[in-house]
Amino acid sequence: MSRTKIGWKTATALVVSNMIGTGVFTSLGYQVTGLHNTFSILLLWSAGGLLALIGAFVYVELAACFRQSGGDYIYLSRTYHPVMGYLTSWVSLFIGFSAPISLAALAMSKYLQAFGWQLGKGFAISVILAVAVFQSVNLSVSSRFQNLFTLVKILFVLGLIAVGIWMAPVPEHTALLFDSSWTGEMLAPAFAISLVYVTFAYTGWNSASYIVEEIDRPHRNLPIALFLGVGFVTAAYILLQYVFLKHAGISELTGQEDIANISFRNILGTTNVRWISFFIALQLVATISGYLWIGSRLTQATAKEHYCWSSLKKTNEGAIPVRAIWAHAVVSILIIFSGSFETIFTYASFVLQLLATAAVSTAFFIPGSRRMFIKSNLFYLLPALFLAASLYICYYVLMERTRESLIGLFIIVAGILMYWLDEKMKRKAALRNHRK
């Protein structure tokens, strides 16, 4: 394997790292405000996993068709119009990849408070800067760094699941409820809103498709990375929610963000649960690293084709887009000062869902002759299912979380204006060069 290429293991590590971040450890506190039945909550996470698997299957076909790094930017630009690709890069720089980095860094400082350390935003910023340094050397260093912290993440998640299933719940500290109320909860707006938090937790299922040119034998290794990564994360997420509900009551969980701490404090005690907090914080290093890696490649792909972004396309001697990496690091730091955890969480989820919907819709334009797996028209059922579920989610978020949705839409409008300005400046630059 070439030193400028990564194999299926690192590609899978990127998928897992980008998916398992803050969402799985925080979402439940928002979900139980409107849902109390265990079946409802486990169905939520199962639906999110199914949606991610469908999306991963579609992205394998898209990556095989276009064969370029850049993911959504390439699919939307080539299928619809350059403004669509521009928007996905704009949103990814300011929300899609940078917001999860901010949330992960903030969550690290929050979880380490269990040791009495009041680290705050300064610590979150220093972590982002430190990870950006490791990502800026070469592909070999990036791969080893990513694989190491992903291994920590996987072992920690498996350990949580094992301990949580093995330990018996304390009767007054359990939210497990298996009755028929789940049928009514599934039809409530709260179910749709909760799906937003779930889909945010699953964000990253498409990550390996953004770097298809850096993957060795992508026709083989990309499907392995996407399906193995998404499959593992789906199973882990469902089991983790069961464990959290098993060891904490509804009143304890409602509106809270440090769900794992609350649940495991009831079975390990206040002293021992500090180490749960420590490893939650530590595993988030892989999340920050993964988003910096993937996000910078999307930005680089955009920079190659748009005037205002052109300075971000340059790479170092190790073919690493250093300027793009640091652009994401800087934006992530700015987001840290932009609002509350839940506000960032909601508007980021809404906009990412809109863009994923647009990107998956490009699959309807892939002819059967250029698809890897399903050659018949039955393939179109997959993007159709994804789009139906995604639009259902977006509608309810817009209705129930209008303020946060409008923040997201404002960022999209700003992106359209930037595209217009970019094109205008490009034409002026071309005219100057022509006159010379």
Secondary structure: elements and pairs:
Elements: H1 8-19, H2 23-31, H3 38-66, H4 72-79, H5 82-96, H6 98-111, H7 120-135, H8 139-166, H9 182-186, H10 189-201, H11 218-246, H12 250-253, H13 259-303, H14 322-336, H15 341-361, H16 381-400, H17 402-435
Q: Low-confidence runs (pLDDT<50, min 5 residues)? A: none
Q: What string gives the helices and strands in order?
A: HHHHHHHHHHHHHHHHH
- The number of helical segments is 17
CATH architecture: Up-down Bundle
Report the count of strand segments: 0
CATH class: Mainly Alpha
Structural class: mainly alpha
Description:
This protein is mainly α and 436 residues long. The protein has a single domain, classed as Amino acid/polyamine transporter I (Up-down Bundle). Helix content is 73%, strand content 0%. It is built from 17 helices and no strands. The longest helix has 45 residues. The protein is globular, with a radius of gyration of 21 Å. The relative contact order is 0.20.
Keywords:
mainly alpha, 17 helices, globular, Amino acid/polyamine transporter I, 436 residues, single chain
